[in-house]
Amino acid sequence: MAWLRRIFFLAIMLVFYPVLYNLKANSQATRPYSEILCGDTVNFYCITIGDTIIKTQNGTTVTEKKALETWELLWPDETERKIVMVINRTNMRLKKGQILAVPCDMANKTFMDFSPFPSQIEAPTEKMLVFDPGLLAWAAYNPTGILVRWGPAAGGRDYCPDIARSCRTKTGTFRIIRIKGPDYRSGRYPVGCSGSRCARMPFAMFFQDNYAFHAGDLPGYNASHGCVRLFYSDAKWLNQEFVQIGTKVVIFPYPD
After folding, report:
1. Over the chain, what is the mean pLDDT?
2. Which domain holds residue 177?
3. What is the CA radius of gyration of the chain?
4. Taking the chain, what is the end-to-end CA distance rounded to the nearest angstrom?
5. Alpha-carbon distance 135 to 220, whole Å?
6. CA distance 242 to 148
7. Of 49, 91, 181, 242, which one has the fewest beta carbons inside 10 Å?
8. Total domain count for the chain?
9. Do the bridges between strand 205-208 and strand 178-179 make them parallel or antiparallel, or are there none, so unpaired?
């Protein structure tokens, strides 16, 4: 009977291992959203982050120091800086060799001008919060179907090594069921955590079991354990000015 059990086990592995392997491969080959935008050479040009020379002067003495480029150094104008951060779907510190897409024209524009969502949809008759894991973006619509605000987001990744399974955000139509404040923390991650060792989830807005929208780090691709990460300012706005218990939530399917 032992040989029958071995054959059965091998058959199961032949069926499920390719699926598991593909999930791992997809997660390891995650493509930053900036690189997708770089294919649109009509509307964007791309830069690679590197070192720069910072000069400081004390009296007649000029000191030069090599430093990594930062958001503030590259875009001193706050409006332009926000546009670049939003379209690249990231709020994290820049890294050497990182590629960023930059709009060819940012004159007299705000981040709202770069929305990937329609400015108006058929009236949903109630407020609606939308997340599209393919666009790496969320949108808030009012009851008449007007786009009130949008922003970058990062959903659940294809595969999480620490729990050995897919972490994709649950898709479908839901309702906000719990709303938390700026100091809220996860009770699940990192695995085995407790108290202050657990990950911060500021302004968490739960829509299904342990799935929530909350503030966090956005690397430019889906990277969470299933929650939808937002810029801090966006999470705060949604939490305090838009959502309430019962607000409709729509999570679009992942792209194939």
Report:
1. 89
2. 113-251
3. 22
4. 41
5. 10
6. 10
7. 181
8. 2
9. antiparallel
**Residue 227 annotated to the active site:** yes
pTM: 0.84
Q: Which of 160, 167, 214, 225 is catalytic?
A: 214
Answer whether the bond into residue 190 is a cis peptide, omega within 30°: yes
Q: Tell me whether strands 211-215 and 137-141 are parallel, antiparallel or unpaired.
A: unpaired
Q: What is the pLDDT of residues 135-164, one digit of tens each?
A: 999 999 999 999 999 999 999 999 999 999
* Calpha distance 21→169 (Å, rounded): 19
SS3 164: coil
Q: Which of 160, 167, 225, 227 is catalytic?
A: 227
pLDDT tens-digit series, residues 160-193: 999 999 999 999 999 999 999 999 999 889 898 8
> DSSP for 57-92?
EETTEEEEEEEE--HHHH--SHHHHHHHHHHTTB-S
Question: What's 126's domain CATH number?
Answer: 2.40.440.10
Spatial contact of 247 and 142, defined as CB atoms under 8 Å apart: no
